[in-house]
Each structure stands twice: as C-alpha cells, then as structure tokens.
Design a protein that fits this description.
Strand content: 25-35%
Largest sheet: 6 strands, mixed
Number of helices: 6
Oligomer: single chain
Number of domains: 1
CATH class: Alpha Beta
Structural class: alpha/beta
Helix content: 25-40%
Low-confidence stretches: none
C-alpha cells in the first residue's frame, strides 16, 4: 500500500533560537549564520518517503517558520490553524528560551489539541556555553509529554533525525486512524 500526505508543521519559539536555520539545514542542507528576523511566517516544503508497517508513506512537510518576536504574537495563532504538528525550538545557551516553552505550547495546543509536537534543543555545537542541562530538558519534555532532540543547525547533528521522527509520528497516526 502507498499513501501520500501533505501536512502543515509549525516551527515555533523565541527569536534567535535557530528556527530558520533548522529548516534551512533540513530542506536545503545549508547553514548560514547571518541572523535575519522572520517577519510573519515563511513556508518551506520537503517531501520524504518512509516505510511503516509495509506501507510506503510519502509526506510533504509544509514547514511554517513562525516569527518569534512578541510584536507578532497577535497574528501567530492565525498561522497555527490546521497544523498537524509543531517543533518547539529553544536555544541551549539561553535558559529563558526553554522557560518560554509552556507559553508557546499552551497557545499552540489550544488551536491544535491533537497535533504532534517535538522539542528541538538547538545549538548543541555551543554546549560549553549551555545555560541549562539535560535534567531541565527532561523535566520540560516529560511535563509536556513530548520527545526532545539535541540539535545543531550549524553541524546538522540530529536535525534529519528530528524531522524524520515527526514525519514517522504523523504517518503512524494517519495509518492508525485508517484502521479504526
């Protein structure tokens, strides 16, 4: 059996955590350390194919890079509508970006209560400058019942793994709904 899906996935979090860089690494396998503010939202896409329980699942991931600035907070929920998933991104060198997680996810889940969510703890290449540790990450992920990945958009470490994990979760969910 072959299925094709097109799914909207938001990438959310505070400004400067690396949302745009993570998407660039995944979609184009590129990294640019020039910081540019996202205004509103940018959309990128990537098709990936997985095999799950003898079913070929091709998923078009529509990745919505949502601006993190508080000045855009009034429009962010509009961008969240009809999302199948979200990556919450925080920066390991800035503790306040992890502390903001509950606010970001609270707003996102009010609009998409059944969406798949993963936490990306970005900038692992700067681990020597970390302002929080693995225990802090585990507490946040357990509290919100989501998986986390330590990533580096700069080196590419765990970026593909995280995005493929999201695709796998969405495909498995789709297949289990079809069986019911």
């Amino acid at each position: 059996m072959v299925i094709q899906l097109c799914k909207k996935i938001c990438v959310i979090g505070e400004p400067g955590v690396g949302k745009t860089s993570l998407i660039g690494r995944f979609v184009y396998n590129m990294f640019d350390d020039t910081y540019l503010h996202t205004i509103g939202a940018n959309v990128s896409k990537k098709d990936i194919t997985l095999e799950i329980d003898k079913t070929e699942c091709t998923i078009t991931m529509m990745l919505w890079d949502i601006a993190g600035q508080r000045t855009f907070s009034f429009v962010q929920p509009t961008f969240y509508r009809n999302s199948d998933g979200a990556f919450f991104v925080c920066d390991i060198t800035r503790k306040e970006t992890l502390e903001a997680m509950d606010s970001w996810l609270g707003t996102f889940w009010k609009i998409n209560p059944n969406a798949h969510v993963k936490m990306l703890v970005n900038k692992k290449d700067l681990i020597e400058k970390a302002k929080f540790d693995i225990e802090d990450i585990k507490k946040k992920s357990e509290k919100n019942r989501i998986n986390y990945f330590l990533t580096s958009a700069k080196t590419g470490e765990s970026v593909d793994t995280a995005f493929y994990d999201m695709a796998k979760s969405i495909c498995k969910s789709h297949l289990s709904k079809k069986e019911k």
